[in-house]
Structures are given as structure tokens and as C-alpha cells.
Amino acid sequence: MKAIVFHGIGDIRLDDVPEPVIEEPTDAIVRLTTSAICGTDLHFIRGTFEGVEEGTILGHEGVGVVEKIGEHVRNLKIGDRVVIPSTVACGYCAYCRAGYYAQCDNANPNGPGAGTVFYGGPKAAGGLDGMQAEKVRVPFASVNLVRLPDEVSDEQAIPISDIFPTGYFGADLAGINPGHTVAVFGCGPVGQFAIASAKLMGAGRIFAVDCFDTRLGMARQQCAETINFDKEDPVETIKTLTGGIGVDCAIDAVGVDAMHAHEGPAAAQADAEKETFEEEGKKIAPHADPHGAHWRPGDAPSQALQWAVQALAKAGTLSIIGVYPPTDSFFPIGMAMNKNLTIRMGNCNHRKYVPRLVEMVRTGKIDPSKILTQRESMTNAIEAFKAFDERQPGWIKVELKPSA
């Protein structure tokens, strides 16, 4: 089968690979009908999040049809349409039973203390092959496959695999109540769903902070109040628009992409150090950021986190859902402590949210397919990665269709 395979930092390829097989009686094999490209994939390709082994199939978002099931999978049948939550859980340990599916004791082969398992990631995160492929093996399939009703299309379902529940998780962590004023830092796909989720939870005002016109335009379509940090100081603007108080809740939906210290409009003029794709479009520049600056994790504190802490009102709540590498140790702890802030963070417990979001889509409460801006076949995936990496105008979320 065809799959997008990681060969090293800056080097991904469309390869022919063996089809997955049932390895455990709790497994299922899903023929993928839809996948996607995520910003987390770029962290691996750039080298800002290390540990992905050569030969790993990338991608952690998938919708498809059940093709094979192990003998212990009792709630599914061959032919079922399913969405695949991007993090993996056993469903029976104490953490899963408490809803902390991302901290499952049994899913990670590296042991109970190893942390979250997801598809297409580093060995430390389970080392599972991902879903930018024609088929995928799903462990603990009874828990990690959610059946789709006929009313929910593939395009509506693919955001439910990761970015919609992650944005909803961020809004949930932020403790948004009706009337709250919220700031979302980063208006990529997860940030867009954080905005949408804040609306679902009754937020009174939502500020959307980014520097890309396409992203800010989409946020404005959701009735968010947009702030371009390349044109104005986001903290001063938020304080001005809130009578000097700040926001009740802030969501960092950026993560490692904001670890360089941004200096306003001047940074956008920095000389790009990116290499171009090489070998017929197979390579992405390592350590590239949206503004072309060259940096590595740990070089500087996250600008988004600093802005979020500064923009929060006293006794506000900070939600961190952007991806950071385990090696990062920077945080404005003094300012946060002295403002009595509540800080909540983590990897999304996807399986906790996926069923309720499927039902929201089925009943027409929200249409997540509106976030999809590009639809590409997997044969064009390398060029799609390039455009997505460069934040080309209009590229917010890329849906991939396996060639099969």
C-alpha cells in the first residue's frame, strides 16, 4: 500500500509499504477513506519534536471502514464506518475509566509512566504507524474506533479525529462559562475549533490572536474579535478592549511554533533560512518556523505563553493545548503565581469527547468541515506538506484522500 513515511528530519516520502495485520485479538484493521495533515506532523519533520524512527508512517487523523477485526472486538463489524481518535487508550485502566484516556496505563509499550500514545509519532509515544496511508492497525479497537452515523460525512468526521476534540478540550480546560471573555492564541485548525468550542460553551467575547490574514479571516467569520500581533501589541490591545482588566480565560493553541521570541513586525522581515524541498519535493527544511527564523526547542520561552499570562485578568485560567516537547522548561511562573492564575494543560483525552462531538455534528449543531481549506490526494501529499509548512495563503487544514 501507499503511505507517507518519515525518513529523517526534513525527509518524508510517498512509499510502498506492507499492509498492516492483526497482531492482537483486540486489534482492528481500518481501510482509510480520509486522512489529514496536522501541524504536529511538521514538528517531527522539522526536528522540533524528536524521536520519530525512520520508516514510521506519519499521520494521526483518520476516518475509514473496518476491514478486519480481532476476536476480542465485540462491538464492531466488518463494513462499519468509523472515526479514529488520534490518541490510543485501553478503556479499562483507572485513568481511562476516569476519562484521562491520554494517560492510559496500558496503551504505551514503554510502560505505565511513559505517557500518551498516538499514531505516527515518536517511539516514546508508542511508535505506532500512522494514518497517512491506505490502511491502519488500530489497537484496543473496541475503544479506539467510534462508529459514524450515516448523517455524518467523511469531511465532517475527519476533524473529529483530532483537531475538533483538541479545541474542545482546550475550551473545557479553560473553564469557560456563559459570558466569559476568552483569548485564543493561535488561529490554526485547533485554534479555530477552540473558538468554535468557546462559542458552544457560551463565551461572551472571544479574542483571536494570530498574524496570518487567512486564519484571522476565518476567526472573524466565527464572530471572534481579531488581533494581528504583527501590527499591534496583543496584550495592550486586549487590555484596552476589556477596560484594562484582561480576559477571564486564555487558550494557548500554538505550542512549540511560538517558542522563538517574536519581536513584532520586524520579525516577519527576518531573512529566511529555510532550505527548499529537495529530491523532487521530498524534503522540508528542519527547524523552520512561520516567519523563517532558525531556532531549536528550549532556545527561548514561548511568546504565546507570555502573552497569555499577561493578557489574563487576575484569578483567570490558562489552558495550554499547543504541543511542547518534553525538554522545554520555560514558563513565566512568577507572573502567573502573583496573579493567582489557574493553569491547566495536557494532551487531549480524545475518546472522552469524540462521541459527543459526533452527536453534535449529526444533529446539525456544528459543521466542522468548514475548517477544511484544501483537499488533496495522497499522491500530492508531499507538495501539500510543503505548502502547509510555508503557511501559504488559504492553507489552514489539509484533507488527504488515500489513493486506494
Looking at this protein, list some descriptive labels.
404 residues, Quinone Oxidoreductase, Chain A, domain 1, Rossmann fold, 2 domains, six-stranded parallel beta sheet, 12 helices, 15 strands, 25% helix
Report on the structure:
By secondary structure, this protein is an alpha/beta fold. It folds into two domains: 2-162 and 349-401, Medium-chain alcohol dehydrogenases, catalytic domain (Quinone Oxidoreductase, Chain A, domain 1), CATH 3.90.180; 167-259 and 297-345, NAD(P)-binding Rossmann-like Domain (Rossmann fold), CATH 3.40.50. The protein is built from twelve helices and 15 strands. The strands form three sheets. Strands 3, 4, 5, 6, 7, 14 and 15 form a seven-stranded mixed beta sheet that branches. A six-stranded parallel beta sheet has the order 10-9-8-11-12-13, with helices on both faces. Helix 6 links the parallel strand 8 and strand 9 (205-210). Helix 5 crosses helix 11 (350-362). It is globular, with a radius of gyration of 20 Å. The termini are close together. The model is unreliable at 259-299 (pLDDT under 50).
- Principal-axes geometry comes out as globular
The CATH superfamily of the largest domain is Medium-chain alcohol dehydrogenases, catalytic domain
- Look at the helices and sheets and give the structural class: alpha/beta
Model regions low in confidence, pLDDT < 50 over at least 5 residues:
259-299
Mean pLDDT: 88
Task: Sketch the topology as an H/E string, one letter per element.
Answer: EEEHEEHEHEHHEHEHEHEHEHEHEHE
Amino-to-carboxy terminus distance: 8 Å
Largest beta sheet, briefly? 7 strands, mixed
- According to CATH, the fold-level topology of the largest domain is Quinone Oxidoreductase, Chain A, domain 1
Report the sheet-strand fraction.
15-25%
* Annotated CATH architecture of the largest domain: Alpha-Beta Complex
Number of domains: 2
Helix content: 25-40%
CATH top level class name of the largest domain: Alpha Beta
Q: What's the total helix number?
A: 12
Radius of gyration, in Å, reads 20 Å
Number of strands: 15
